[in-house]
Here is the input.
Amino acid sequence: MPIFDVTFTLAMTTDLASQILDQLRQTSILEMIAVLFGVASVLLANRNHVALYPTGIVSTGIYIYIMTRPGVGLYAEALLNAYYLVMSVYGWIRWGQRQESESGMAISRNSGKDWLITVSIVAVAFVLLYTVLSRYTDSTVPFWDAVVASTAWAGMWLLARHKVENWILLNISNAIAIPLLVYKQIPFTALLTVFLFVVAVFGYFRWARLYRDAHRKQTLTH
Here is the structure.
């Protein structure tokens, strides 16, 4: 590689790192609190523990405010967090009623019908969100904002129903959200999303193992 190209690449990388560090220094206490509760929620989700919901409610409640601030304008993300909040209440009640916390038997995999519903949620949510964002808001990223939100909507629905595949949908959303959040100068949340991506990868394999082990025991007892 020519020396000029190497120097240019290093300069660009250094400049980007400097910009991210500057943004991190300007991160508000409110965003930090939202991130900490978000981290707690996803770690508890990985452990299949019902406490993921109350911690998630705190995080999403704060993010609804953050995403609608002037200069951010990620309205689909704000709506997504409102949806998270509602689904967290639903999931908390559902898990509590069925005593599903940390139970591998509660976990299941998507059936053909579940996949049909999942794809339908993504498609319908995307069309609605993109239409509203592009026509009725000042969003500068309506397409990507709608993609992030619609895939996460489906993922959260699957999480509340204890489906292993919830991690797949949530990570599609996370992967797209990371550069979007950096672009919108919310770096601390972008770093959180990187963390969520990694945890979701481990979450998928952990839930798959819990499902396999629980149902193997069930088969052996019959």
Summary: DSSP finds eight helices and no strands in the chain. The radius of gyration is 19 Å. Residues 3-221 form one domain.
